Amino acid sequence: MVTRDGVPVATSGSGFRNRGVRNGRAHEYVVRAVYRGDGGEVTTPGLRRTVTPVARPEPPPDFTLGTCPGERDRFLVRCAEPPSGDLESVLLSDPAALAVRRVPAGGGGPRGGPSADAGQGRVVA
To answer: What are the E-state strand segments in the chain?
Structure first.
C-alpha cells in the first residue's frame, strides 16, 4: 500500500508511477506492507519519506570531447557551465555499464531517487 500526502497511489508489481506531481514541491510518501492472515489483514506502520521531485537536467551547453594535446591516452571534455546543478563526467570501461543508472549517496535529484520529468508531471520511484 502506497500513499502520497495521505492519498492512495496505484501500484503495479513491485513499484509505482505517480503522475500529477509538481517539480519543486515536497510530497510525503508512505509505503506499507499488508498481510492477510486468519484474523484478517495486518498492515505494517510502513516506511515514511518526504521527497521533492526535480526536472530532468538540460544537456551541458557547447559540449565537446577531444584528445589532449601530446597525450594520446587522455581526453579533454569542454563545455559551458550549466545554468543549474552539478556537471559530472564518468569514464566507463565497459559499454554495457551504460544501461546501469548511477545513484549517488543519499539519492534524490536527476541522477537517482524520485524525479519528475519536465512537463510530464510524474514521479518515478
So the answer is: 2-4, 7-9, 17-19, 27-31, 34-37, 40-43, 47-51, 64-68, 71-78, 115-116, 122-124
Q: List, as one string, the DSSP characters of 41-68.
A: EEE---EEEEE---PPPPPPTT-EEEEE
The one-letter code for the residue type at 74 is R
* Angle at alpha carbon of residue 113, lines to 101 and 119, rounded to 5°: 95
Per-residue pLDDT tens for 95-121?
Answer: 666 554 544 444 444 433 443 333 333
Q: What is the pLDDT of residue 97?
A: 60
For 45, other C-beta atoms within 10 Å of its C-beta total 8
Q: Residue 19 is placed in which grid cell? A: 503522475
Q: What is the pTM of this model?
A: 0.49
Please check whether residue 116 is in contact with residue 21, taking contact to mean a CB–CB distance below 8 angstroms: yes
Helix (H, G, I), strand (E, B) or coil at 74: strand
